[in-house]
Amino acid sequence: MRVITASTPEQQHYVKSLIEELYVTVFPYFFSDNYIKKLKNFELMQAPNLEELSLTEIMEVTAAFQTITTILKQLGNSDQIIHEYEDIFSKNTKILSKYNIDFPFQLIDFLTNNHTEVVTNKKSLYM
Known about the structure:
Pfam families: DUF5365 (PF17326). The chain is 55% helix and 0% strand. By secondary structure, the protein is mainly α. It has one domain.
């Protein structure tokens, strides 16, 4: 018999706070408020089954969001292209996808200004 430990409500809340951090702290550096609002309306990065994740699974989701956030913050504070993070970024988006969390971006989406509503005046992510 195999015992699986369920995730705690605190861990589920923490994942939701990591998602909110991306919307509130990180995305404004790259996208306009209007574009971010559209992303929220599309319900991107919603975690529909957090309560059903095991302890191991919620830790994997948590680490994926933390890694993506860290890479984007580093990218936002650097004028150089950070190609060495592309594989790590992609791996973590696949982890989110595995748990039905829609994160439709690739790192290149944050490196180029191909969105019509991208913010052009950059501010520091570390205020």
